[in-house]
Write a structure and sequence with these properties.
The chain has 99 residues and is α+β, with helices and mostly antiparallel strands. It has a single domain, classed as Transcriptional coactivator/pterin dehydratase (Gyrase A, domain 2). It contains three helices and four strands; from the N terminus they run H-E-E-H-E-E-H. It has a four-stranded antiparallel sheet with strand order 1-2-4-3, with helices on one face. Strand 3 and strand 4 form a beta hairpin. Helix 2 runs antiparallel to helix 3. The relative contact order is 0.25.
Length: 99
């Protein structure tokens, strides 16, 4: 499968305009989700894992109590690509349903 092209600065700024709550940190798409409690945060991660595996595009993420921190990048492309935006949208939709 060919590598997806990584976004340039103009494309990244346009993408961020479509993704409220997301920022660029360390060259990766970054977001922190807050949930009512640990069960909701863990439920988000468990449910998201199904979509993540289906995409075969795995985030860097961690959970501390009610917070889930997510960072997205396409390692094969050396930066942020359309795959990262697609996954960010999916995570936002899922988080919205659980918050």
């Amino acid at each position: 499968m060919p590598r997806l092209p990584k976004f340039d600065d103009v494309q990244l700024q346009a993408a961020l305009a479509e993704l409220p709550g997301w920022t660029i940190r360390g060259g990766k798409l970054h977001r922190e989700y807050l949930f009512p409690d640990f069960v909701h945060a863990f439920g988000f991660m468990a449910t998201a894992a199904i979509a993540i595996e289906a995409m075969n595009h795995h985030p860097e993420w961690c959970n501390v109590y009610n917070r889930v921190t997510v960072e997205l990048t396409t390692h094969d492309s050396g930066g942020i690509t359309e795959n990262d935006l697609t996954l960010a949208r999916k995570l936002d939709d899922l988080a919205h349903k659980l918050q």
